[in-house]
């Protein structure tokens, strides 16, 4: 409301509902994808444990930083079962991610954002998970690197470049 020219929540009812639905999906359901890609891939697990140590204790020498990172990582790893991430759910999680990325690749080849020519709260929610836990992690980045329109969308949203357009006209919702 304070910045209507840069609003991320559409004012029309269908698009507002769609934006909130996409935000809910990104914030709640993509957690399973994020935790799976990060913690069930050995390369990602090693990467993030080092990163946790660097971020939490940059002043410590390398071996101690890595030890702190492993301690933080172990705590995060313990959440996987509570979030429904297990060997039994791997195929479903990866199938959902593949379906989502394929749909996004097709959609984003036609239009720059989910609901038109400006990012919505749905764009930010999905990009948050896809960038931080899939693209940024070296062992899972292939999921996005092979989809150039999704990669360009993540770059646009993450960079904060101001959108030059508006939502789709007449409260339309893209297929």
Proportion of residues in helical segments? 55-70%
Helix/sheet category:
mainly alpha
* Overall pLDDT: 92
The strand count comes to 0
Instruction: Describe the largest sheet.
Output: none
Low-confidence stretches: none
Span from first to last CA? 28 Å
Number of helices: 7
If you compute it from the alpha carbons, what radius of gyration comes out, rounded to the nearest whole angstrom? 18 Å
The portion of residues forming beta strands comes to under 5%
What shape does the CA trace take?
Answer: globular
Order of helices and strands: HHHHHHH
Describe the structure.
The chain has 175 residues and is mainly alpha-helical. 62% of the residues lie in helices and 0% in strands. The protein has seven helices and no strands. It has helices spanning 13-39, 42-56, 62-77, 90-108, 121-135, 142-145, 148-159. The longest helix has 27 residues, at 13-39. The model has no long low-confidence stretch (mean pLDDT 92).
What descriptive keywords fit this protein?
62% helix; 0% strand; mainly alpha; 7 helices
Q: What is shown here, in short?
A:
The protein is mostly helical and 175 residues long. The protein has helices at 13-39, 42-56, 62-77, 90-108, 121-135, 142-145, 148-159.
